[in-house]
Amino acid sequence: MSTAVIKGSDNAAIWGPYNLIMWLAGIVFVVIMAITAIFTLMFRERPGREAQQIHGNTRLEVIWTMIPVAIVVAITVPTISTIQAQSAPPPADAMKVIAIGHQWWFEFQYPDLGISTANELHLPVDKPVHFELRSADVIHSFWVPQIAGKVDMVPGHTNFLTFTATEARPEPYLGQCAELCGFSHANMRFRVFVDAQSDFDSWSKSVAAKAVTPVSPLAKQGQEIFNRSACIGCHTVNGTAAQGKTAPDLSHVGARTTIAAGILVNNEANLTRWIHNSADVKPGSLMPPMAKSAGGALSDEEIKAVAAYLLELK
Amino acid sequence: MATIAGTLTQPASSGIWSWITTVDHKRIGALYGVTAFIFFMWGGFQALLIRTQLAVPHGVVIDAKLFNELFTMHALTMIFLAVMPLGASFTNYLLPLMVGARDVAFPRLNALSYWVFLFGGLLLTSSFFFGAPDGGWFNYAPLSSKQYSPGPGITFYAVGLLILGVSSLMAALNFATTIINMRAPGMTMMRLPVFVWMSLIISFLLILALPPLTVALLQLLFDREYGTHFFIASEGGDPILWQHLFWIFGHPEVYILILPAMGIVSEVIPVFSRKPLFGYPAIVFAGVAIAFLGWAVWSHHMFTTGMGAVPKTIFATNTMIIAIPTGVKIFNWLGTMYGGSLRLNTAMSFSIAFIALFTIGGISGVMHASPPVDMQHQDTYFVVAHIHYVLVGGAVTAIFSGIYYWFPKMTGRFLDERLGMLHFWLWFFGVNLTFFPMHYLGLLGMPRRIYTYDAGLGWGLWNMVETIGAYVLAASILVFVWNFFKAMSQPQTAPANPWDAATLEWATSSPPPEHDFDVVPVVRARDPLWHDRDHGIEPAQPTGEHIHVPPPSYYPILIAAGMTVMAMGPLSHLALTAIGAVIVVYGIWGWALEPTE
Which CATH superfamily is domain B20-539+548-552 in? Predict the structure, then answer.
C-alpha cells in the first residue's frame, strides 16, 4: 500500500509537487531543530552572563517573514499546475468504469463492455481509464495508492477520477476504502489487476458472458440450493434466476482471488466460513447468517455444496 | 476538594457548599483544571486501548464497534473535555490578574460555564453505557443518520456538543468583555500580556464559530429524531452540507486549541530567558492574522470530496498563507531565547519542546495543504501524525509548561523539579516515539480509523513502536500526578514573584487573596513588574477602602443542571426538555433578582 511506489499516472502527477514539498519540509525541519538545540545549549545561564535586553529587530523580522513567503510560493506553483492537470477532462478514448461504494464492498461496472463485478478491478495497462465514483449508502473513498490519489464516493454526488496504470503484472495492486463508513470500514478493500491489453480483453469477454453451468454433482446440487435460498434476493448470477442487485455480482466469483472485499483468500474453507456467518468475519455484515447453527436455513452439507458451486463460477 | 480549597485561596467559608456556589475566578479556574485533567487521563486511557489493539496485525483486544466508539470518544474527550477546558482553566485563573481586575466581568456566568462543562462532559461520557458515538469526532453524514447509526450514540454526540458549546460561548463572551472593559489604569491593548491577547482572539473565534456548529448539530438532531432530511441525499439533502458547516467551526476550533498554548509559551520563555519577548507587536499581529485567515481555509479538510479545481486552488493557497504568521511566531520565540540567560527548569523545558514539536506538526500540515499531496495523505496516519504533533506536542506540552510555571502562584507551593524533569523527558521521548512513526505509516498507505490491519504490509513494527510510546506517555503522566500530590502536601512557602516575572499576577501573594489585589495596580509599560523594578517604583500601599467581592450563588449550578435535563429530552422523552426548561427559567429568574452586594 506504499504511496511512494509509482505505478500510475495520477500518483506520478502527485509526486511532482510531493517531491519538492518533502525536500523543503526536510530542510525547514533540520534548520529549526538545529537552531532550537543550539540556542538552548549556547544561552544556558552561566555565572556572570547577563541577558541582552533586545526588544526586536525590524529588518530581521522582515527577512524571516519573506523566507516563509518564498517557500510557500515555491510550493504553491507546482501545486496549482498539478490541480489543473488533474482536473483536465478525460481523453475521448478513455475506458469508462463506474465504481459504487457499498457498506462494505466495491461494485465495478464497465458500461461499454456490459460487465458488472465486485471488489476486483481489471484494467488494461497504458490506457486511460475514467472513473465515475458513487455511493449506494454512506461516504466511502476509492484509493489504490500506488496508482492514484483518493477520491471520495459521496451519496447524491458523482465524483470523477482519471488515470492510466503504467505497469502490468500478475500481482494485484492493493486498494482500500479511505473514509470511515461504519463497523467494517477496516475490512473494505479491493484489488486492481493491471493486464496487458490481450489479457484484459480475454478477462472482459469471460466476465461479460453468462455464468458457466456447473459440472460436478456437488456444484449442481449447490446451484439448486442457491436458487431456492435467500441468496438470489441480493446476488446476481448471470443467466440464472439470481438477479439480486444489492450484493456483489457472483457470476464469475470463482475466478476472483479474494472474497469478502479483499479480506479472505478465495477458497473452499473461506467461502464456507463466509456463507456460514459473514458477520463473524466482517462485523456488521449485512449478509444474514446462512447456517442453521447461526440462525439461517442451510445445513453444513448444503453450505459445502453452495461453496462448490460458487468456486465453479469462473 | 476541601483541602485544595484551603490552599488555592483563603476563602471566608470552606467546604463543599462553598465550592458549589463559588463565583471566584480562581476557584472556577481550579475546578476547570482538575476536572479537565481527569478527563485528559480518561481520554488517554481510551488512547491506550486503541494503541493496544493496533500493536499487532489482527489484534483481538478491542472489537470493531468498540474501536470505532473509542477513537470517536478519545477525540471528543481530548478536544472538548480536556484541551479546551485546560485552556479555559488558565484563562479563568490568570486573565483578571493579568489585566489588573479583581474578577471576570460576569462571575456567575463564569460559574455557569464550568458547571455546564462538567455536566455536559458527564452526559457525553455516560454514552458508553448506552452506545457511544462511533462515527468519528467529525461525524460525517449520512453515516451519522438514524438509518446507518440507529443506536443513541450520535444523538448523545449532538446534545453533548450542543451543551458544551453553550459553556464555551458564555466563557468567550465573559472573557472578551473582561479584556475590553476591565483593564487596570494604564493597561493599554499593546501592553497586554500575549496570553491575554490570545484569550481575546479565541473568544471572538468561539463567538463566531459556535453558531455554525450549533446549526449543524440541530440539523443533525432533527434529521435523526424528527424526520428532516438536511443531510440525506435520497431525500434531496446533501451530506456535504454537514462537512461545510462542521469545518467552518472545525478549522477555527484548532486555532482555539493552539492559541492559548502559544500564549502560555509567550509568557514562559521571556521570564526564563530573562529578557522581553522578541517582537511583541509581530506576535500580536500574527495572532490576529491567524484569527482572520483561519476562516478562509476550512475546505482543506474536504480536498478529496470532489471539489473543483478553483475551490481547491483557493483553499490550498489560503492554507499556505496561514503558515506564514504561524511560522513567524516560532522565530519570535527563538529570538527571545537568543542572547538570553536561559534557566532550563521544567517549565522552560516544556516551552522549548513546544517550539520543536509544534514546528514538526506545522511542517506536516503545510505538506497536505497541497491538494495533490493530500490525495495521498487524507484519512491516513500521516494526518494522525500531524494532528498529534500540533495538539500533544503543541497544546498539551505548552499546558504542562504553564502548570509548572503558575503552580506556585496558584497553590503557594512548588512542583518538584527532579520529578518535573523526569516527567518532561518521558513526555518528550514518548511524544516522538508514539507519533513520529505515524508519518511513515501514512506514507506506507495505512488508513486511519481502522481497527485492524493485515500482516505483510510493513505496518506491524511501527505500530508496535507507537504502542510502546503510548505507554511511555502514560508513565510520564503518572510521574506528574505523583508530583502534584507530593507538592500539595508541602507547606505554602512560595513568595509573590518566585521567578522574577514581569506580569501583574506576580504582583500579589501566592496564592492571591480572594479579592486578588489589595490595590488595583497602575500600569506604566508592557512587562509592568520589570519596568517598575528597573525604575525603582514601589508598589502602592492599600488604602483601607472596602473591596467588593461578588457573593456566591447556587443559581449557576441549578441552571446547569436544568440545561442538562433539557439535553436528555432527545435521548429519551421530550418531557425532560420541558422539565429542564422550567428549572432553567426558575434559575434565571432567581439569578436576576438575587442581591449582588
Answer: Cytochrome c oxidase-like, subunit I domain (1.20.210.10)
